[in-house]
Amino acid sequence: MNFHLSQIPERTARPRTFGLTMVNDKGLSVAEARHLVSGAGPHVDLVKLAFGTPLVTTGLDEKIRIFQDAGIPVYFGGLLFEAFVIRNQFDDFLALLKEYNITYTEVSDGSIDITHSEKCGYIEKLAKYGTVLSEIGSRDKDREHITPPYQWIQLMQAELTAGSSYIVAEARETGTVGIYRDSGEVREGLVQEILTKVPAEKILWEAPRKDQQLYFLQLVGANANLGNITPSEVIALEAMRIGLRGDTFDLFLKDS
Predict the structure, then answer these.
(1) Staple 178 to which of 88, 148, 170, 186, CB 3.0 to 4.6 Å?
(2) The CA-based dihedral angle spanning residues 182, 186, 190, 192, taken in that order and rounded to the nearest 10 degrees
(3) CA 180 to centroid of chain Cα atoms
(4) 186: left (phi over 0), alpha (psi -120 to 50) or beta
(5) Is the pLDDT of residue 256 over 60?
(6) In terms of Cα–Cα distance, which of 190, 92, 185 is closest to 136?
(7) Residue 42 has what DSSP assignment?
(8) Per residue in 94-122, pLDDT tens?
(9) Which segments of the chain are extended strands (E)?
């Protein structure tokens, strides 16, 4: 903090285990990565290199090093994991993690058809190498497929048991699938039922839109785990977390 202001909620300290802000990197340049670290580094806890961007990003090794040198773990988005699995190149994926010194991985099944037991098997294998985030909800789409809350809970609990450190509640970069309706509206009943059985500290809510971020800050508090944050919005989100944005201005003020 640059100066003192009373009635500011206490934020967890880095390296955080909850209260995480995960940035969705859809192709930042090396210079942009440096700018992100310079301007917002203390408020970034994870950087996800989205979908297949690592394959085509210029200066990938240098960019990863910039984040890692700043104490910010980097990981490949789940789609890249799936791309290796569908090609029977899982061992190559492990070698890639080692090559770039990446100790965080995301396991998902949004684009490939594997059983949940197979997914949990990959979680178990990758948990031996580091921290696993496993994604749930990518198949859920209004009017196409809706997983009932009890099944969300069963899947989450099974993946935590298999070795996941965090469950990623899927929204994609659009914020219109998984825990959200087509409109981007939060499926509140689903979220609240999940929280009766799964600790909030273990869930990373993908929330690319401001109204979605606000919902989880109001529900969970300043230290909600939020993901798929646009790099340019990190500071704005941190201000919202501590009640210094119009939407949360009254959230943490005590009656005098």
Answers:
(1) 170
(2) 180
(3) 15
(4) beta
(5) no
(6) 190
(7) G
(8) 999 999 999 999 999 989 999 999 999 99
(9) 21-25, 46-49, 74-76, 104-107, 131-136, 166-169, 203-206, 226-229
Helix axes 60-69, 30-40, angle to 10 degrees: 10
Q: How far apart are CA 254 and CA 3, in angstroms?
A: 20
Please tell me whether residue 170 adopts helix, strand or coil conformation.
coil
Q: Are 217 and 225 in contact (CB under 8 A)?
A: no
Q: Tell me: the pLDDT tens digits for 64-80?
A: 999 999 999 999 999 99
With contact defined as beta carbons under 8 Å apart, do 234 and 20 qualify?
no
SS3 content of the chain, % helix, strand, coil (to 5): 40, 15, 45
CB-count burial class (<10 Å; 0-12, 13-18, 19+) for 20: buried
Question: Is residue 217 a contact partner of residue 250, using CB atoms and an 8 Å limit?
Answer: no
- Residue 105 identity (one-letter amino acid): T
